[in-house]
Design brief:
Largest sheet: 4 strands, antiparallel
Strand content: 5-15%
CATH architecture: Roll
Number of helices: 6
Shape: globular
Structural class: alpha+beta
Radius of gyration: 21 Å
Number of domains: 1
Distance between the termini: 59 Å
Length: about 150
């Protein structure tokens, strides 16, 4: 009888140790994501924003899926949470977002990119549901907190 409790204690410790490894691995991943998010934040109209293509990359989805989520939930994005870039802003950022000078058929979007403010990103987080979305949202919150 005395062996059984000892066996369970040892087994519990192994499981606990495994969980610590998983938690440490997850923290490292979040730190990497924070750096990725910080590298995508740009200043437009005196606000810190992230472009829709960069948001999609961070969340691991296509840009059209991000824009569709916005279209399907307009009540979550009041004025000032998200906006389309002007022609001047697009020209200024052309090298960053790689748009075509003469929009048409091709691999690049012919629609103006959207800029998500911090509030817009928080509202987007309420729509996107996946383990990666949770991790990315934490990284976004942490990156903006560091600003």
């Amino acid at each position: 009888m005395s062996r059984t409790p000892i066996f369970y204690k040892v087994r519990f410790r192994c499981i606990f140790a495994d969980r610590n490894i998983i938690i440490q691995s997850s923290k490292q991943s979040v730190m990497t994501n924070i750096i990725e998010v910080e590298n995508k934040i740009i200043t437009l109209r005196d606000q810190q924003v992230i472009l829709d293509s960069d948001v999609a990359e961070l969340y691991g989805v296509q840009t059209k899926e991000i824009n569709q989520a916005v279209r399907n939930n307009p009540e979550k994005f009041p004025e000032g949470y998200i906006w389309e870039l002007t022609e001047e802003e697009m020209l200024f950022l052309r090298s960053k977002i790689l748009t075509l000078k003469n929009p048409g058929r091709g691999q690049h979007s012919k629609y103006p990119p959207k800029a998500f403010t911090e509030k817009g990103l928080y509202m987007l987080a309420t729509i996107l549901k996946s383990p990666q979305a949770v991790e990315t949202t934490i990284a976004i919150v942490e990156a903006y907190a560091k600003l």
